[in-house]
Amino acid sequence: MSERKDPQRIGVLGATGSVGKSTLDVIAQHPERYQVTALAAHQDSAGMEALARAFQPQYVVMANEHAARDLRRALSDCRGIEVHSGPEALVAMAADPVIDTVVAAIVGAAGLPACLAAVEAGKRILLANKEALVMAGDLLIRAARASGATILPIDSEHNGLFQCLPVDRQGVADLTGVEQLWLTASGGPFRERDPATLSSVTVEQACAHPNWAMGQKISIDSATMMNKGLEVIEACRLFGLPAAQVSVVIHPQSLVHALVQYRDGSMLAQLGAADMRVPIAQALGWPDRLQSGVSGLDLATIGSLEFLPPDDQRFPCLGLARQALIESPGATVALNAANEVAVEAFLNRSLRFDRIAGVIDATLAMMEHKVDTALEALLEHDQRARVNAQQQLSQWSQ
Fold first, then answer.
1. Is residue 114 scored above 90 in pLDDT?
2. CA-to-CA distance for 355 and 227, rounded, in angstroms?
3. H/E/C letters for each residue in the chain?
4. pTM score above 0.90
5. Sorting pLDDT into bands at 50, 70 and 90, what band is 107?
6. Domains in the chain, CATH or no CATH each
């Protein structure tokens, strides 16, 4: 008889977002293997109340103090659940020794300090926060090697690459014989739309992704293909390859998520449904395989798969991301910051969709990007880029 193992204790950063909810859905299917110990979110107190009641964690963290106060009142009848608040509490949660695995699914630069804390604590990290690698990839990888942390990507594309590469017990890929990594992109809702009409794009249209159900920020990034640009940067940092060895191909069906091209002419592809529970289950169970709640593909029904080159004129953000990657780590920090500012302005309906790339480009051009790679220096550069991007908005806004 095999020895019974204690459940793995999980902390989910970004629990009320789409990736967080998908993670909890997979966890709920395997109560004998996983225990939700802590949950964190920004300000969705109603969403967090529902999750806290369903999963009964030891504690929850709300980055927003007002949301934390609302949640404390809402959970006043749940004596066993503590409510903490503030960015420092997010970092403390990520490093808490009581947690074995941290799911890093906070969107944007706000997730970086907690992600780094989890890595420095030597934990197993399921990484969905691509901005952490975009801003501080070298820092995170160095910290993981020093602490023994295991970083497992749950972005569908990077998880696909992970599955197509041989990896060691710490999840570090062996790139022997690898010639090229390929990330697939659906092309978003505007893949075939006349670029001359993009000035009239609405928030609702940009968020209507044809294949994936995602939050607003990542949906806009998908529509501009900045999401794919950030993923190129992420792949280079995660797998230690130069920009020239990471390529993008348009794949409208979103069933092939990544491909690895080897020196001998072989190419391995990872396929799966357009459902985040698939890569999440793979990373949660690794090196085992878990039920994700998602059915496998019926290839005979699918019939055919398309692959097309990306249109650089239609998607200028992809080129901006590549330029920043080649330039310096500071440039990728500023790229991400300017993009977050521009996307927020578009979501607030104060910036046209077709001007998002212009704000980012102008912000990058006005800054010097040679910065130290320590966390404090990177965060300071991030803040300077946000200030500069806000200045650019006054020139580019409607």
1. yes
2. 16
3. CCCCCCCEEEEEECCCCHHHHHHHHHHHCCCCCEEEEEEEECCCHHHHHHHHHHHCCCEEEECCHHHHHHHHHHCCCCCCCEEEECHHHHHHHHHCCCCCEEEECCCCHHHHHHHHHHHHCCCEEEECCHHHHHHHHHHHHHHHHHHCCEEEECCHHHHHHHHHCCECCCCCECCCCEEEEEEEECCHHHCCCCHHHHHHCCHHHHHCCCCCCCCHHHHHHHHHCHHHHHHHHHHHHHHCCCHHHEEEEECCCCCEEEEEEECCCCEEEEECCCCCHHHHHHHHHCCCCCCCCCCCCCHHHHCCCCCECCCCCCCHHHHHHHHHHHHCHHHHHHHHHHHHHHHHHHHCCCCCHHHHHHHHHHHHHCCCCCCCCCHHHHHHHHHHHHHHHHHHHHHHCC
4. yes
5. confident
6. 8-153 (3.40.50.720), 328-398 (1.10.1740.10)
> What pLDDT is attached to residue 108?
80
Residue 303 has pLDDT above 80, yes or no: yes
